[in-house]
Each structure stands twice: as C-alpha cells, then as structure tokens.
Fold this sequence. Notes:
Oligomer: single chain
Radius of gyration: 13 Å
Helix content: 40-55%
Shape: globular
Number of helices: 5
Amino acid sequence: MYIAPAFILSPAHLPHLKPLEQIDNLHYGEVSKDEAAKLLGIKSFDTSLPQDWVEYCHKKLGVNPVPHVVWSYDTSRFGNPVGITREGRILVTILDHLSS
C-alpha cells in the first residue's frame, strides 16, 4: 500500500485546510464537490475547473481531475487547483513539481 508523503496531503500554500480524514470515510457520491470543499475549510472556490488546466492534466498524466479538485481563490485572485480527495491532492502536487 502506498502512503503519500505528508506534504502532498497538506498543501503548504493553504495552511487553513482541514485534514482529508473529514471526508475519507464518505463513499463516492455521498457528498458533492461543493460540500467537500466546505468541509475541508476552503472558503472561496469554484467547482468548475478551467478547461485548459483539465486538458493539461489529461495530456501530462492521463487523468481526469474533475471529481478530485476545486479551483480555490483563497490565496490568489486568479485561483489555484486544490485537491478535495487524496487523489486530488496527489495530482495537484505532481503537477506543481512538473511545472517548476
């Protein structure tokens, strides 16, 4: 079993995020992206993702980020992707490392 490093699950640029354990025990479909983001403490966000960013995820990693990520405006007026699931946090971290 793979356990992601702690820095992946707790983004440094969003110290106010609550731990994913708040939603880990929920089954897929039991909570909406909107509800999950609120449970995690994300204040200003959009559940829709920029299409060019979604296409970038498909191109670079072959994954669909839509169920796992929201676009947060908590730290930037232009927004940043924030994972609302473990998969989403790992995906965002990998993409951050690829682009830096």
